[in-house]
Amino acid sequence: MPAGIIDGKAIAAQIRLEVADRVSALKKKGVVPGLAVILVGENPASVTYVANKQKACAEVGMRSFVRRFPADVSEEMVLAEIKKLNMDPSCHGILVQLPLPKHIREAACIEAIDPKKDVDGFHPVNVGRMLIGESSFIPCTPAGIVELLRRSKVKIEGAEAVVVGRSNIVGKPVALLLLRENATVTVCHTRTRSLGEVTRRADILVVAAGRPRMISGDMIKEGATVIDVGINRVDGKLVGDVDFETARERCGLITPVPGGVGPMTIAMLLKQCVEAAELNVH
Fold this sequence. Notes:
Oligomer: single chain
Distance between the termini: 53 Å
Number of domains: 2
Shape: globular
CATH class of the largest domain: Alpha Beta
Radius of gyration: 19 Å
CATH topology of the largest domain: Rossmann fold
CATH architecture of the largest domain: 3-Layer(aba) Sandwich
Structural class: alpha/beta
Strand content: 15-25%
């Protein structure tokens, strides 16, 4: 029996409807949630991402404003803009579109954002709060992964979870969130010996390594839930970090690429921006 598909598009659409309801409730109190995006340069992927974020905001009734800078802008100017947005009461969420040009320090920009407006969940204060289990904004992709599992009725508590990849954006935070949900978590990476032996133990396998089709069906436990975070272009086609065809014969549930984790990232960004606005309602 081929695995069931976790439809990230459908689940993300459901979250957007919930966000739209929360936005209209806030509007009745005179608050319009606002998201500011800082875009430096003309990186085509970044330009597309930002356009998608603007469109998503409009669909749920939120305001979005983009602060565009040329690629040769000084770091000081970007930091000054962040400072201005921190003080602007109509702006509830701020995100800096990555990657930035080499001469601008990513960490300096992220740390300049007020943690209460850090809807991307990358500020060290939010990362620290997440680590110790306090309420905080959470990186959107890991937050989306946990939401996919919950809404697909996958039992996380007591499950053996394996995360392949240890980036600050996905691997580490998703491992922490699964731990918080009472899973037993193992993190694998490029130095892990006998990777297949470890991944075959997983009831929940999250793959975020950035290597096309690195996890094949024989590395997956029968009936496991597989969350594929990878987005790789191979021969002009988008493929994940999991070999979908062979994996589908083994696992119980799997996210497709595209249409799995991807749509959840912007949905969670919208959700966190609304939460930031709700915190401002007195």
